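User: what does the whole thing look like in 3D?
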Amino acid sequence: MEMREITYRQALNEALAEELERDQNVFLMGEEVAQYNGAYKISQGLLERFGPKRIIDAPIAEAGFAGIGIGAAMVGLRPIIEFMSFSFSLVAFDQVANNAPNMLTMSGGQFHCPIVFRGINGPAHQLGATHMHATENLYSNFAGLKVVVPSTPRDAKGLLKAAVRDDNPVLVMEVELLYGSKGLVEPPMPEFDLVLPLGKASVPREGNDLTILSYGRTVAYAHKAAEALEKEHGIHAEVVDLRSIKPLDTETIFASVAKTHRVVVAEQCRPFCGIASELTFQIQEHIFDELDAPVARVSMEEIPVPYSEVLEHAMLPSPEKIIAAGRKVCGV
Amino acid sequence: MSKKVNKEAELKMLYDMLVIRRFEEKAQQQYQMQKIGGFLHLYIGQEAVAVGSVAATRPDDYMITAYRDHGHALARGMGMNEAMAEIFGKATGCSKGLGGSMHYFDKARNMMGGHAIVGGHVPLGAGFAFAARYRGEDRISLCYMGDGAINIGAFHEALNMAALWRLPAIFICENNQFAMGTAATRSNHLKEIADRGAGYNMKSVVIDGMDVREVRDKIAEIATAIRKEPEPYWVECRTYRYRGHSMSDPGTYRTKEELEKHKKDDPITNFSSVLIKEGLLTDEEFKKMDAEIKALASESVKFAESSPDPDVAKLHDYTFVENDPNYQPIATTPDVRGQNPFSCTFSV
Ligand SMILES: Cc1ncc(C[n+]2csc(CCOP(=O)(O)OP(=O)(O)O)c2C)c(N)n1
Ligand SMILES: [Mg+2]
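Assistant: Here's the predicted 3D structure for the full assembly of 680 residues, as structure tokens:
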């Protein structure tokens, strides 16, 4: 089987096309997804191929179309709802956080909600305070939602396809700044059906001295930092890509920490009640004795995102900040 | 025009529209030269709406709009320098480089912001009117939005309450016929945007948004009326944007012919020829005015480029007021008991 190099964007596009092809109940709804081929061109060509019944342009009404998706899911359809950005999902917060994840419980198991919400999430470039929310920690705090954050084209495709087939509400949080990035992916259907399990982390770089727990946008930063730490300080860092925030693959995380005994968490979101808080708690709860140093974290600064490029750079996570955290944790 | 024409006021409207046009052409050029980042949404083609409505109202009236906000701020008198510096993300910008193109704020001019979440600012616009009515002031609120903003929950909630509580707000829908690539006709079941007002039992007016005099005169009429007897109005200004939705939009959803047709209805060209025909302006003077404004626009780029970046040491200054070195509490509401012109009561 020949792997191909495709972009993160193409990978998502293939995932959508393959799931639309496989199951007549799957449809894609959102702003500009059909005639415009997607604000970020993720749905390129889908209207032409699947027609206006399956690829549906909605008015700017996030609460409305998110809720229409949930209702349709409760009675047997399998909606994929595109938020042009998860920042706009805040307008639909009641639907995503209050309706979708509660349905199974409230109905005593009578109704479940097989729906996918997807779109860009987290840091981009100079979009300012309202357009760059990293919402992964926010939504992970609601019981009943699954949250995945792919960082490679292969993960993007495999996780999105898995999300469509999952019978729970799943949020697929894409990284705008990775849309153009390339990676190796198996051939498309019918040759290969790439479905990755939700809740399984990967270890794209191995090392014995330090574990960098990363996801989404921060994975590439972690790699950069690991290279620099090795070259300049002889520190061999292992990079763990969480891929799924919820469910969380503690097995892979703990195995890495038990090997390296030192941890930096690189999160996209802010530190307070963030992903690092949870990871660090779980590490200390379960394998406290394995730690040789306090866990360090790299996050957004605890401020709204400023527009200025200089300030933005200072407030967002970066390879430099991960290097500094790694050195601190390793005492060099 | 039957009314006596105030030459100075007419020329000012032309001047202000030209300021917006030339400023944005410069901004577009700077964006294309990659000197600025983020999103840039140009107002070119719609200038008459902001300029006409500002000319019709008072400087102490509130104004709020969406992210296509350069025109509104400039019409209110913001200088090109601070406007350009904001897009460059500089400390001298109107929002100190923290807001960017989509978030122009100018407290001194009661410009209450550009806002980037579609429809999210509409309740705020009603809120300014609420405060004015609460305090017994005769100020009004101008709340601008795009045709794409009228399908979002916040819009409906705000308009209903504005009507219910008779808030002195003018909700101005700048119908430029598209929300990104979606024609208004593809997202509204009601054919006429103006008819939306009926759903809230709100008076509605349609205005030719390419005609600055019509905008001014009709908004002035409404403003006068609601200053006396507060109530909200729903206004549809029919207009057109000449540029893409933002700089990354190739605009394939409309034909070249359609665009050219609307460009022939240009608010600036039309108004300048009217003024020339009426003898209020010569061709010579118009050219001079334009050259002067172009020079100011170029100047604003120099100003922005030579301005300092915001200080990284001040990164945390604006998250909480306690950290803001220039923080000043808002003056408390003056005692207006016994002098409330609206005998304000918010009950139905
Ligand atoms: C809640 C929300 N959803 C989506 C977007 C993305 N978006 C930005 S502008 C826009 C189109 C708005 O069109 P319109 O209201 O007509 O204003 P115009 O751009 O024509 O001035 C969209 C969908 C957003 N900013 N906020
Ligand atoms: Mg519009």
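In plain terms: Chain B has one domain: 7-307. The mean pLDDT of chain B is 94.
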